[in-house]
Specification:
2 copies of one chain form a homodimer. By secondary structure, chain A is α/β, with parallel strands linked by helices. Chain A has 6 helices and 14 strands. Chain A has a single domain, classed as Carbon-nitrogen hydrolase (Nitrilase/N-carbamoyl-D-aminoacid amidohydrolase, 4-Layer Sandwich).
Chain lengths: 263, 263
C-alpha cells in the first residue's frame, strides 16, 4: 500500500486558505493513506479560549472535515488530519480519519501539551484501531508520542500503522518514534508542520518539520527536511507489522509479563 | 554523585580471570555507583543447560557476588552487575546490587532473549527500586529495554537511575535508551560488553559496546566505542530525575491517563 504525509506551514486562522493549499498540493496524489499535521487548517498557537471556540468545528459537518472527505473521495484514499473539534461548548484537539465514504472515526488528543491545557479539553475517546481495508490504523496526536502506553494500547488492539499528526517544537520525537515502532513492531507516519508562530505576545514557536515514515524494524524510510514543505508517498507492506516474532524464541507481544508490570 | 560503567570483553567460562580483570581495572575508581555488563564474569553464549548450571552461582554466597561485595567495600561504592544465578536447580539471568555492607538486592531478568529462553527461567522478582543513599536505583537487564513497561514500572516506583547491565548484539538499544530516559525523566547507565563469542557451532555473536550514560532530558553524557574497553565515570545530579514537571502545565507522570490505557 502507499502511505504518505504532507508537511507544510499552515497560516494561523486562515482555514479556507490552508484547505485550498492542501487540496491543490494533493490534487494528483495516488495513495491509500495520507496523514496531515495536527491542527493543519486552523494553525496551532491559540491565545484564548474564545479564539479556539471561533475556529473549532463540528465533526463531520464542519468545513475542514467536509473538505477532507471530498479529497478522500476524489483521490480514492484515506486521510488522517488534525483539527480543533467543537462539540457544544467543549473543544478537543482532535484528528479525524476519513475515507471515500465519509467519516470513519475521530480521535481526541489524550495528552495535551503546554498551553493546550488551557484551551482544550483532554480527549475522552481513548485509543481506537480502524480497519481501512489496506491496513489497520490508529491515531496519536503529537505529544501523545511521549507516553508509551498510547502506542502500546494501539499495538495491542492490532494497529499496523500509527498515524501521527503533529506540531512538534521540541527535538526528540522523530528519533523516539523509531523506539515506538521497534517496541510495538508497527509502522508510523508522523506528519509534522514547518514554519513558526508568534501570537498575542507569546513566545515564538518554531516547528521542527522532520515528518517521517518508520518501519516495524525501526528503519526510517524517509525523513523530511526541518524547514521545507514536503509531500512524501512511499510503498509499505502493512503485513510486516503483523508478524510479532522477533526470532524463533521471542514474540514481542506474547512475551510481555503483565503480571510483573505495575502501571 | 559519580556513576559509571566498565565495558570490556569477558572470556567465556573464565570466571576467576574475569573477576580478576574487573578487580584490577576498578582498583582505584572513585564513584558511588558502578554498573558492569550482563553475565560479566561467566560470559554469555551458553550452549547447554548443563553449562549454565555449572557456571551459575548462588547469591550472595557464590564467588562472583562475594568478589563484588569486596570491591564495593574496598571502593566505598555500590555495584550493579549481571551473573547467572542458581537457586536449587533453577537458573536465572540475574543482576545483583551490592554495597559496602553486602548484598542489597537481586533482580532476575524478566524478558529473556533468544536462546536464553532455553537455559534460564524467566525472572520472578518484578521490578524493585532500592535507595542507596545517593540515589534510588532500579535494574533492567539487556533485552528488558525493549519493553517500556519495565522502565515505566521502575519510574513509577521512584527510580532516579536505571542500571542496565547488557550484552547487546542488535543495534537499536543505545538510541532507544534515550527514549526510555525522556519518557520517564530518569537517568540510565547501560553497561554493555564488547568482543564476540562463537561457541558450540552456534552463530557468532558480536557485542556492540556503546555503553552509555543518559540524562532525564535525553542527553547522552558519554557513549563508549563499539569495540574498545571503556571505563567511564561521570558526575550526575540524581535529583534531576525527581522533577517530573516538563513545563508549568505538564507533569510527566501525573499526566498519564490510566483510564484510557488498555495494557
Amino acid at each position: 500500500m502507499r502511505v504518505g504525509y504532507f508537511q507544510f506551514a499552515p497560516a494561523f486562522g486562515e482555514v479556507a486558505r490552508n484547505l485550498e493549499l492542501v487540496t491543490t498540493r494533493l490534487a494528483t496524489v495516488q495513495c491509500d493513506l495520507m496523514v496531515l499535521p495536527e491542527l493543519f487548517a486552523s494553525g496551532y498557537q491559540f491565545v484564548s479560549k474564545e479564539e479556539v471556540e471561533s475556529l473549532a468545528e463540528p465533526v463531520p459537518d464542519g468545513a475542514t472535515t467536509k473538505r477532507l472527505i471530498e479529497l478522500a473521495r476524489d483521490r480514492h484514499m484515506h486521510v488522517v488530519a488534525g483539527l480543533p473539534e467543537r462539540q457544544g461548548k467543549v473543544c478537543y484537539n482532535s484528528a479525524v480519519l476519513v475515507g471515500p465514504a465519509g467519516l470513519i472515526g475521530t480521535y481526541r488528543k489524550t495528552h495535551l501539551f503546554f498551553e493546550e491545557t488551557l484551551y482544550f479539553t483532554p480527549g475522552d475517546t481513548g485509543f481506537t484501531v480502524w480497519d481501512i481495508g489496506s491496513a489497520k490504523v490508529g491515531v496519536l496526536v503529537c505529544f501523545d508520542w511521549l507516553y508509551p502506553e498510547a502506542a502500546r494500547t494501539l499495538a495491542l488492539k492490532g494497529a499496523d500503522i500509527l498515524c501521527h499528526p503533529s506540531n512538534l517544537v521540541l527535538p526528540h520525537c522523530p528519533d523516539a518514534m523509531v523506539t515506538r515502532c521497534l517496541e510495538n513492531r508497527v509502522f508510523s507516519v508522523t506528519a509534522n508542520r514547518i514554519g513558526s508562530e508568534e501570537r498575542g505576545g507569546k513566545e515564538r514557536l518554531t516547528y521542527i518539520g522532520a515528518s517521517e515514515v518508520v518501519t516495524p524494524r525501526g528503519r526510517i524510510l524517509h525523513r523530511a527536511p526541518r524547514d521545507q514543505e514536503d509531500l512524501t508517498i512511499l510503498d509499505i507492506d502493512p503485513t510486516e507489522a503483523r508478524n510479532k516474532a522477533l526470532n524463533p524464541y521471542n514474540d514481542l507481544l506474547r512475551d510481555r509479563r503483565k503480571d510483573l508490570y505495575e502501571l
